Amino acid sequence: MPLEGRKGAVLRAVVEEHVRSAEPVGSEHTALLEELRCSSATIRSVMAALEDEGLLTHPHTSAGRIPTDLGYRVYVDMLLDAEPLPVGERQAIRRRLESSGGDVADLADQAARTLSSLTRYASVVAALGIHHQTFRSLHLLAQGPGHAVAVITTSGGVLQGRLIDLPISVSDADLDQISRVITQTLRGIPIADLTQERLEKAIGDATRHHQLVEAIRAWLRRDLARGSRLQYRVEGRRHLLQEPEFQRPEAATPVLSALEEDSMLALALAAAPSEGVWISIGSENRLAELRACSVVAATYSAGGGAVAIVGPTRMRYRRAVAAVRYMANRLSESLRHAV
Description:
Helix content: 40-55%
Shape: elongated
Number of strands: 11
Largest sheet: 5 strands, antiparallel
Low-confidence stretches: none
Order of helices and strands: HHHEEHHHEEEEEHHHEHHHEEEH
Strand order of the largest sheet: 8-3-11-10-9
Distance between the termini: 44 Å
Structural class: alpha+beta
Mean pLDDT: 83
């Protein structure tokens, strides 16, 4: 729905003033009069036309108007100017991501925290599962009598180690040999290609110690199964509770519940394209729980993961788009360097 001239200017002014104030915007509003440089009667006439087209609405009996979901959509699609993220904020994002040392899990945590802090909305980062990474090494480290810590490193960093019970007969030399053989056999292989048959061969050839072999094999199978799903990090739920739209428990509860469930988050982000920033506004959201929200998302690292912010439809869209776009680009770059 293209809007030109005065209609477009009035819609933009109403959206941006409502985003700022969270209040209905009247034709006599000082900000509109100053920006549009026309009489309140003219603005009132244009606002009435925009309401007839479904872009503005009256809340209750207020004389002012607020944007509808369609009004926000037209604003986003037709009127939203590109806005780069400020230099200081770009530097802050780079520093936070660099502090992760390339570890995928920590990258996702840092990205979610930073994005929420910058935008003051809830943030979601769908981290690439382990199956997108390549195997680098296995280290078995003695940890007191009868125990060892097994640590796997991948192209994405270090997986969480696991404490393994050892038979008394396993020596430090045995642990070193097992680590070397498995590392040499599996190094450089994509985790997704570590089939059960390949694991059987690599680990079966490594050692005569059946109990240790079974412990390592079970751990790898568990992490491969876990890696078939994206891992979701959510930060900043408290920011939503500070927005006027979510002050009432009945309004906030559905949104907070959706942010707690990986299956809901997966559905909410399923339509995000492999390139560019995607915006879903209010009733456009697949989840009924998010119909009072807008979601701004972008994929990263060749579409394997996603980064998003969730806020009210009365969202600061320019800032949200800039932050999500920059974060997705930096995550992709960080993961390329990690491989």
